[in-house]
Amino acid sequence: MKRGPADPAYPPFKWPATAEEVAGLIQQVEADTHAALDAAAALPDGELSFAALIKPLMHLPCFKTNPLVCQAKHLQHCSTDPAIREAAGKATSAFAALKKLSQTRRDVYAKVKAYAATAEAQALPAYDAHYVQALLKKFERGGLSLSDADAAELKSLLQADADVCSEYGKNLAEDKTTLSFTPQELDGCDEAWVREKTNADGAVVLTLKYPDVLPVLQNCAVAATRRAVTLARETAYGNNLDLVAAGVQLRKKAAALLGYPSWAHYVTSDRMAGSPERVQEFLGGILEKAQGGALQDKERLRRLKAAHLKERGELEGDEAAVTLDAWDTSFYNSLLLKREYGVDHEAIRKYFPCPVVVEGTLRIYQDLLGLTFTELQDFDTWHPEVRLFLVEDAATQEKVGHFYLDLHPREGKYGHAAIFHVLKRAERADGTVQIPADCMLANLPPPSADGTPALLRHDDVVTFFHEFGHIMHSLCAEGSGNSTTLAKCPRDFVEAPSQMLENWCFCEPVLKVLSSHVDTKEPLPTAQIAALLKAKNVSEGLFMLRQLYLSLLDLEIHGADVSALQDAAGLQALVDALRPKVSLMPNPGPHNGVGCNMLRNFGHLMNQYSAAYYGYLWAEVLSADMFATRFEADPFSVSDGMDYRKQVLAVGGVGHIADHLEAFLGRPPTQEPFLRSRGILKGA
Prior knowledge:
alpha+beta; five-stranded mixed sheet; two-stranded antiparallel ribbon; 9 strands
């Protein structure tokens, strides 16, 4: 028997089996949300209180504190049934519209504003007062200072943007592009991997999913094959470039209605950065410091390419005339690591069977944060591969939350690695606490058909460790609403905890726990670990410029002047100019008459990361400081781990994150540990 909603040890989900069930859930959430908003608006002014007004608004039925929300929409990303995915996509759009509607109810806003002026509200503890102010701000950012006509237009614009983002994501998830190669065209790739991908006709068939793309770009010695894969990824995905252009214009119009010069100004106004001008200054400072090293990195890879082509008898003309192309950087960086640093990522994979990495990661997080994870069986699920765990405090046995792991690719599934918050912590009407639940959707390579465990690249290990850090960030938030929609971490900090934890994957004691050779069961040898650490910042300048390019591209398309970005042609011209200027790498030319443009698959800009991609670097500066200050000397420190859990994770988005960080660090954050850790500050 599948256990779930009626069993308190399990998450309260019964996943829909049909599109009709999803439609029914949408109707229920819509009806309950309207009823809750109507009830708030109908409260007499003399009866306004935190319990009667604010608490219900903290946990509206269209928020993820309601199990029915993710029960209806989560399967958009992971169901094997196209009809359910489509219905769940409609749920996502419907609930986004409800959340926007909740921000535009003038009658409810009037009640919150009236309550905020009462003596009770003025005397609230700081924790409760946060939610009153957060509600007021949410209403005002929703346009309630606008006229009725402008408010209606804003609602229309935001809904249209949600719709184009949903279509964009669907195009990514449901792409069926395949490329066929001969085994010879995949020279350099792992032979077992090539055999696994070979069909009955002897052709090696690849998709555009990461587990197929990355091995080619990193290991295939045949430039034409790498080029074919790169061009396919930058020209596929239907009308996605047109959808980006549409989203850019819709966001600019919405920002203008709210009185902001650009969408970037609107987004950053409630982030740590505060403004796009400060972000530009931040990015520009790193760009200036990184450019010199990046030029050296590029020349080093270019020379290696020339030598490699000469070895293969493929050099045409003089070595000095050889240029480095977009499909070359990963391959020649991997070749450099093998030849000059003794780092062979294909050989290292054999030390990282997927089950060993997963179990080792779970063990490390339990020890570091004072938690215990118990795997649950016989639960309601959307796929047989999914695993479910209960998280409890190791000292008190108090239930902290649940997490699902759905780790391998399949048709129709979300194509990257990400964490989905499927249920948020909330205080129920009877005073009990609903514990949160998170889900990791990843695309780690699956086991072979003969049952041989999948082998992960070190990059995959880092990604898994990083994403699991997001689960811990979410589940460890305390209080009645510390990670809810009214107390979210600033988007430009949310990556910092997980980025800090990536450092564990470069610590020898941790790598010994995470590794076990697929045949010999030996951990990763010390010599291999030393080589891996020595090579950590190889080509770092060039890769840093790519991150800066993506961040600046995001700010540009969400800037004050988007008049030249009305259509795909405008976006193409921007990418053609900006990519070589910042990243030092030329944008590939047209392929089959279609311009190459990574905006077609840059999903971050068509979700909650629009005008916020800079946050990865911003957060990495903070993460490097946290690691260097508290964990570099002892990554297994239980006391520092508990301080991290209580001072950084537990607070969620309540209060000012800069204050929490200063308390954890003992001083304000600084950039120096980041610049040193990335090799940009030499000799430091």
